[in-house]
Amino acid sequence: MSAAPLTGIVLGGGRSRRLGANQSKLLTHIGGKLVLARVADTLKQICSELVLVVRPDQDDDIPDLGIALNMHVVTDTTPHEGPLAAIHAGLAASTTPLCFVIAGDHPFVSRNLVQAMAATSLADGPESPTAVIPRTNGVIHPLHAIYPPTTWLPFLTHALSEGETSPRRAIEKATAADYPPVTLFTDEELERTDPRRISLLDIDTTEDLNLARKISEARKFTPRHHSPG
What we know:
The protein is an alpha/beta fold. It has one domain (6-219): Spore Coat Polysaccharide Biosynthesis Protein SpsA, Chain A (Alpha-Beta Complex), CATH 3.90.550.10. It has eight helices and ten strands. Helix 3 (83-93) runs antiparallel to helix 5. The longest helix is centred in the C-terminal third of the chain and has 16 residues, at 206-221. The chain is globular, with a radius of gyration of 17 Å.
């Protein structure tokens, strides 16, 4: 477990436009398991609570699946919508000093990586936790990151009130202002905990889905011991 209790916040309100109107990313199967169930089952091993954030008008099976997975289901912070409002809603529903926010379409989320990021957040002591955002190949990943609600809830409340909708822009503003504090989890640090970067793999396209299924099959059929024949 991480040094402080951790809430897992899963964003489940995306519309999966690039996979086709009738296919939700979180309700697709990889390795014989629904993607949302894969994410939840991994996070349950390291988080004291799980929150699933959905759209107010969401009419697919994701909210019901979240309930079945024993997740606390909440909706985007109205009147706002989108990932920034979803992060805000998740942080508002949490009861722990740290939250791990992840888009629900990351089928291979890594326990080791999440725990390492949580430890980095607390490196200067539990009284001054920082957000921890992975950055790989120069790109930050705000939907696979640690946020301390105490500082980020008021910051995001203000950002939403000013019409901000992009988590990436909000983080860039925080970094420029040096508040709330942000720590970037670099390629070198990722190399130690998730060298293949598969925790950061999300399913945006059919090609991504096919790749994820290939990874799952390779894991399933890789033998522990090689034998003749």
